[in-house]
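Reopening this one. Same input as before:
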Amino acid sequence: MRWMVAVALAVSAMPVTARETPADLVNPFVGTLADFGQLTPAAVAPFGMVQLGPDTDPANHAGYDFAADRLLGFSHTRGVGVGCGGGGGDLLVSLRKGEASGPAIMDKRSERATAGTYRVTYDGGISAEAVATRGAGLLHFTVPQAGPFVLRIDARHSYAKRISTAWRTADSDDLRAEMVAGTVCDQGRYRLFSSSRITVNGRPLHRALAAADGVATLQLNLRRGDVIAVATGLSSVDDDGAALVRERELGTRRFQAIAAETRAAWNTALGRVAPEGSRRELALFYTSLFRVFQTPVAIDDPDRRHRENDGSIARSPAGQTRYASWSLWDNYRTQLPLLALLQPERSQDIARSLADLYIRGKAQWATMNEPFLSVRTEHAGIALLDMHRKGIAGFDARAALKGMVADSATLQRDTPDQRIEAAYDDWATAQFGRDLGDDGVVNRFSTQAEGYRPMWRSVFQTLAEDADVVKARGLYQGTLWQYRWAPVFDLDWMVATVGKPELLRQLHHFFDAGLFNMTNEPDIQVPWLFGALGEPQATADLVRTILTRPMAHPYTNAGKLPQPFVGPSFALAPQGFADGMDDDAGAMTAWYVFASLGLYPLVPGEPWYSVTVPAFTRATIDMGGGRRVTIRRVGPRDGLVVRADWNGTTLADWRVNHHALTKGGILTVTTRAR
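Same output, byte for byte:
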């Protein structure tokens, strides 16, 4: 399809202009084709509940497929590149000619998306555009000719299981619904309320909709050029909260004013990092950061009320925000550490929200009373330890530790990967206890964390014939080869057990034999292990390859392909990831951002970053309070590694401390021609 190539190349064909901002460089179509990211071009604000965008037939997990040209309508929620069948799809809105049936045909050449807006023309000339705020969305439909039209609002629509739907009112001036749906993978459920106002050319209609079986319809006789607007607020609390969200966040403001406000919010968030590079490099960088800054989501209504995951209603203290919508098994390794670095103020509220999960009694996936669509919450304790050690305070650390201690008894420890992951959680509990001076917790959980070691020696030290079989011995979406490197929290023990020369030899074999899997999280840290073991050149070469070159991707979540997919891991195109590579709530795009900056949080829970050759000759990070970190590369990107310096002092271990970064300074990585 020639139009697909045109859209994919459009953003890279133009030079950067002085007036372009980070938000202007975002391309929301990246990763929206088939199973190459499971993303969507929906309109969204930073960390917003609302993702208002098109639902197509066929679709990926986020309700949209870039290759599809059949439009079902526009729904208000979706997960960010998550698995199973996706999540969200709440409140599907469509406007069709009176006689139309079946999906509408999209004019794909008219399709545009920015950071915060989406628009398309369909059905021979109906124009639709969407904009989102934190908890609200505005749809505009402009009709090309006079005649009868039908506005249809479907509250039954969902990407997961729709459990119940109820209309609270059927008034066009304030159409209210209550929706209950399954969370991602149907492991729990969430309750959502909506309040919508329908206008024509800015004027209210004062009409009743025909509402039955979860679908509300409105017959309209329109003139050419009429604009039908559907303004919707969402709330986790009740329909009054949804109406308050709609009035406070949208009101009667014009579409462009709302779009400008959301664009400004994106520029504030994205502008914390300023790399120097080509337009294509910057576009892929900011598009990746755009995905990172979409989760978790802020769920407080304007009166600060929110629903907790036990179903109760609470009110956040003034100046604080409650966050929800977790996918921690995927993104505790990369995305949450990146937020701790680039969004430390917001991370305080995220930490409070995570700590409250433990205080209330945390489920490993989702409860039956979630405030919003969610995936899973394993390793929340590691994330809390990581933020705590990076100076992100304000949460009840002792209460969180108590919850982590109780949570340990609920962890699965049946399969080799579960044993390692539970050991990491126990390690985090012991470390948290050490930081808080609780010797009993330290002694108990340090011993418990080491309990996986005999299993590791018997299963992973000398691998058996099933070592390259996905899901062998009950593993989750990986192989024994890939999971053998998981105990990053116990790397010194692994080195002492295997021996550094032998461990390095096995690491080289892992990559030389094509056993590495960049399409899922279990082994995405492995390229950085070389630097940790004294071979920074190998890390630099591998990271550059992953960032810039096509490579073989032999694995899917279900098994090994007969023939590997060969292509880039990250690309500025609708086919933006490797085949089967989900972004998983910013997990993979955060990896890209970290790697591009030449940093990586190899051991979440430890406040330092591995350092490698950055993609950019220069990047500046605003650390707040007038402090800035400048990351420089002196020499060719593909050159031989010479050294890394922090404020002129050589980093012998290729590590830089988080607290050093927060004070500001210059990180210089020097290379020379090969």
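So the earlier flakiness isn't reproducible anymore. For the record, The two ends are 41 Å apart (CA to CA).
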